[in-house]
Amino acid sequence: MLGAVAQLGERLVCNQEATGSIPVSSTKLGSAMIVAKYADWPSWLKIVILGPNALLLWFIAYPWFPKSKKQWIWTGIAIAYLVAFFSVMHFVFGL
To answer: Shortest CA distance to 3 belongs to which of 29, 30, 23?
Structure first.
């Protein structure tokens, strides 16, 4: 068994009382799991995760794809606006 062990004590006389201790090592944030940043992931893992999700998105979104040239133009305008908006939010405001 790895890790710290908690101590628990109980005293029963007239008044019931229970006491215990929490090991310091068990209260550290992030000690249970280490998560690698996305940039550090190997390429094969990114493909394994993103590939099936891209296919799923295609099958879900296909019925809503623009059918005419005018619809494609408006879709392009909307996508350009969203890219500009989120770029400003990220690079200017840091959100």
So the answer is: 23
**Distance from C-alpha of 77 to C-alpha of 85, rounded to nearest angstrom:** 12
Name the residue ranges covered by the structural domains of the chain: 7-91
**What is the distance between the alpha carbons of residues 34 and 20, in angstroms, rounded to a whole number?**
28
Q: Rounded to the nearest 5°, which phi and psi values hold at 67?
A: -105, -30
Q: Is the pLDDT of residue 11 over 70?
A: no
- CA 50 – CA 88 distance, rounded (Å): 25
Q: How far apart are CA 24 and CA 19, in angstroms?
A: 16
Model-level pTM greater than 0.70? no
Helix, coil or strand: residue 90? helix
